[in-house]
Amino acid sequence: MCLILIAYHCHPRYSLVMAANRDEFHDRPAAPARFWGTEPEILGGRDLKCGGTWLAMAPDGRFAAVVNYRDPGTRKDDAPSRGELVTEFLLSRVSPDDYLETLRNKSGRYNGFTLLFGNAERLFCFSNREDAPPLIQPGVHGLSNHLLDTPWPKVNKGRKALEEILVRETAPPVEAMFSLLADRSMPDDNLLPETGIGPEWERLLAPIFISGPVYGTRSSTVLMIGYDGMVTFVERTFDGSPDSFITSQFRFRIESKP
Q1: Residue 4: which H helix or E strand, with range?
Q2: Residue 101 covered by a domain
Q3: Does the global pTM surpass 0.90?
Q4: pLDDT per residue as tens digits for the range 208-224
Q5: What is the CATH number of the domain that holds 205?
Q6: 62 CB contacts (<8 Å, ≥6 apart)?
Q7: I want to staple 159 with a disulfide (CB 3.0 to 4.6 A). Which of 58, 110, 142, 218 is the partner?
Q8: Domain that residue 39 falls in
Q9: How many domains does the chain have?
Q10: Is 258 a member of any domain?
């Protein structure tokens, strides 16, 4: 993922509302969201190059999403894929607290990342580029290719737009969140971060929805988990054009613990 917006325990009907964009090179193969047929089961898209995923959920209510931390000067060519962190957590059946300890012990093997993972009761945001308490507090948060709530223009704009959507006490309209994720407006150059990739790439990556000839937004996902345990998972997959997409939609109730 390259932008994750979350509202955590700040809506009367939903413990979690998430709107996220995955940005990637257009020639990197990927499969749309589906149930994988694994044991335990996973729902999410799939990176067909390395086998992991950027955002997924298990029927027991655990979920995870990962973003790369943009720091080209420290990149290691032999590092494992960061997408495997999402699947490892979901396939392990471990609690978020236990997986946090696993992450702390192995995170140095990977290139920079920030991983959002947990369930409706405990939600963590862990980065191998920051030594800070990872437990997320209730509120509206944003994450791009840095740390949680780093005030990049797309993060600030996305958080404000999600807050406006959540003002209504009824179910947040899925279409309104997809409209938020489709915003292609460009911030002023003086607001752009400096992450070591040069001004041309900073401009390309600045909008919420990225439209580039070789790199851009490949999918948008809306995930909502109600206090009643109902899950709504909707993904739109793009193939180089923001106006042409395939929709995958799932609705199910979180499995009860035996």
Answers
A1: strand 3-8
A2: yes
A3: yes
A4: 999 999 999 999 999 99
A5: 3.60.60.10
A6: 89, 90, 96, 117, 118, 119
A7: 142
A8: 3-253
A9: 1
A10: no
